[in-house]
Batch of 2 targets.
Target 1
Amino acid sequence: MSHEPKGRPPPRRTVSWSECSGPGDGAVDRLRRQLAEDRHWVLCGKLVSGLAHEINNPLDGVINSVRLIKSGKLNPERVQEYLAMIESELFRIASLSKRLLGLSREQPPHRAPTDPNELVTKALFFVDYRMSINGVRLERQLARRLPRIAIDQTMILQVLVNLLVNAIESMPEGGLLSVKTAAEGDWVLISVADTGAGIADEDIGRIFLPFFSTKKSTGLGLSVSMNIAEQHGGTIEVESAVGKGSIFTLRLPCR
Ligand SMILES: Nc1ncnc2c1ncn2[C@@H]1O[C@H](COP(=O)(O)OP(=O)(O)OP(=O)(O)O)[C@@H](O)[C@H]1O
Ligand SMILES: [Mg+2]
């Protein structure tokens, strides 16, 4: 399997939060800055409403369970069940808030020289089980003699796992996952390709927004990942063709 989905190659799209905020003082530049600002506020609005929704659902469950336990009408077994439910819902909120921290730029990356191939191998280890239960086959093409790059290993590992999990989830009936590393000028590229559902044209501009999900999931994976990539001076590019598959490429600077 090549990294290109079969048939006509899909149009190449690169999405980056910072792409409309370059310097300059012409009318076009002013418009660009205005757009970037508008986009920021739209993003904040989405973040707040998404957050409220994601926190309210588990909290409703917690409040309901506490009320039932307080009523004293439940037998001890049921009380244990409700306590377990409270625990798992509180975990959900805690994990949400941890993932949101990934969206904040206040945590600078702790960089260390890293072999990109080693990190890819580690990420693949994390999704091994998920791949086997989904019937997903793996193809790896890891470039030899890649430069070591100064990155926060935990953060980039999170990005890779997010991309891999998305790829696997796009192939519920099985398929081929291709992971490739390459050096291109001053960049190291790590791409994750799947032969899954692909992304609809109307969705592709929204997949990096917080809380956008077509899977009834949290919808934070890609927004957190893009933020981490940008904190490293890199970006994430996506190419996709509906019914054929998608390729997500993480692009990181060598220095
Ligand atoms: N490899 C892929 N193939 C098809 N669609 C994808 C792929 N990766 C991402 N998407 C689309 O982008 C959306 C956003 O992805 P993202 O990882 O941010 O959220 P999620 O996977 O839905 O939820 P979470 O990652 O928080 O569990 C997905 O819901 C899906 O519609
Ligand atoms: Mg995801």
Note: The chain has two domains: 27-101, 110-253.
Target 2
Amino acid sequence: MRLIRRADGYYAQFSIHIDRNEIREKTGRAVGLDLGLKYLLADSNSNFVLPPKFLRKAEKRLKRLQRSVSKKYDQQRRKNKQRQSNNYHKSRIRLAKQHLKVSRQRKDFAVKLARCVVISNDLVAFEDLKSQNLVKNRHLSKSISDASWGILRQWIEYFGKVFDVETIAVPPHYTSTDCSDCGARVKKSLSTRTHICDCGCELDRDTNASINILNRGIDTLGRREFKAYGDEASMLSSGPLGGVSFICELGICPDSSGRASKTTIVVAQFAKFELDHRHLQ
Ligand SMILES: [Zn+2]
């Protein structure tokens, strides 16, 4: 057991090693996912998930709290090696709580979405994005980190192991330019939202990309019996976004390869203790 301090209290964590396997009916379906900015996720069945933008919604509040923290910080006290005022510490904790809330919302969303995608398919293919490189682009950085691709991917791989679903990351090159129907390379700018090819193929650019991603995934794994284009198959129609039932969702511990492992350490958090601010300074 260990004790953890969060902005809103202390938590006792208990870790147990278990091998989590869940029974799941094969669906014979496969899906490709394109992760993007306009849509957090577009799949090969023309489903779209908008980014939740938790951070942006909370941003105004965060900014206000941050200002209030800075205002209460006293340089003079610092020079004299005095303790900062009670008001300073109070507003510092308010800010930390708001950050904590955003990160919990983000994780909650990723867990539910990942589980939903995984249980409705036998194969999930997605782009092997190096989001670290993308985040360096300052214009895009906020949306990208907000979209929480990394967390989503981690949970997709985790649930893939739990539900015995193939998950595969494919190289992202040319997935948005190549025609998913005939393979021709159709150049388009970032603002071109529709893929239109001479072969008659016309699709949303992200749907086209996700079909390419799926095809690459299937190529990589070897041809198997996957219905690449599910008829009414839709990851979102197959169950409500929610119902995560097991305490395991509270935490994943990556194995030595850095990937989520099926034999994961289950972390259950019990017993939140009331926080006494005086102990935190
Ligand atoms: Zn074409």
Note: Residues 86-119 form the longest helix (34 residues).
